[in-house]
Design brief:
mainly beta, 10-stranded mixed sheet
């Protein structure tokens, strides 16, 4: 996967990839995913939510969405978390957690590159939105059967605090995983 574009003078968290980027000659929509955590040790929870509308409807997903215009990936993560969960984050709250690309051979318009972030949510109150019904899940009780089928390939590493660089090739049915490389 090529390195994301950078803007001289801006910190790495301020990368401005734009709405689209090219990977191996194909167009990929740039998105962000932000995984919010609370607690520690055995009591650690992650905020996920049931997608009510749009891409992924009916699946449990992380908060996130499309990068709009020329906002940075971090700006998009902060905006999406506020829109989908009612949680206000500051730029300093975000930690870069890597990147994933998904290739959909049967639906190339679904190809996307996600810039991943994590943040501590503390005792913040979560508010449902029209798009997503957020819910806290114990890190050891993730609802895998309700998520995209690629999640078990990379999400355990992210939940363990490791940085992710993954390339996922979806099956022709756009549901299963034909191949995955996770570094």
């Amino acid at each position: 996967m090529p390195e994301p574009p950078s803007v001289p003078g801006l910190p790495a968290g301020a990368v401005r990839p734009g709405e689209w980027m090219t990977v191996d000659g194909a167009a990929y929509r740039c998105v962000v995913l932000c995984f919010l955590f609370r607690g520690s040790g055995q009591g650690r929870d992650v905020l996920l939510g049931l997608k009510r509308t749009g891409f992924g409807t009916g699946r449990v997903v992380a908060l996130g969405g499309k990068i709009d215009g020329r906002e940075s990936a971090g700006e998009a993560a902060i905006r999406e978390v506020a829109e989908e969960g009612g949680i206000v984050l500051a730029p300093a709250d975000l930690r870069e957690a890597g990147r994933i690309s998904w290739s959909f051979p049967a639906r190339p318009e679904w190809n996307m590159v996600a810039f991943l972030f994590t943040a501590d949510a503390g005792t913040t109150t979560v508010v449902a939105s029209e798009e997503i019904e957020p819910r806290w899940y114990a890190v050891d009780s993730i609802p895998w059967h309700e998520m995209w089928q690629d999640a078990p390939y990379w999400l355990p590493s992210l939940l363990a605090g490791r940085r992710i660089d993954a390339r996922i090739l979806m099956d022709r049915d756009s549901e299963g995983v034909a191949g995955a490389v996770v570094d």
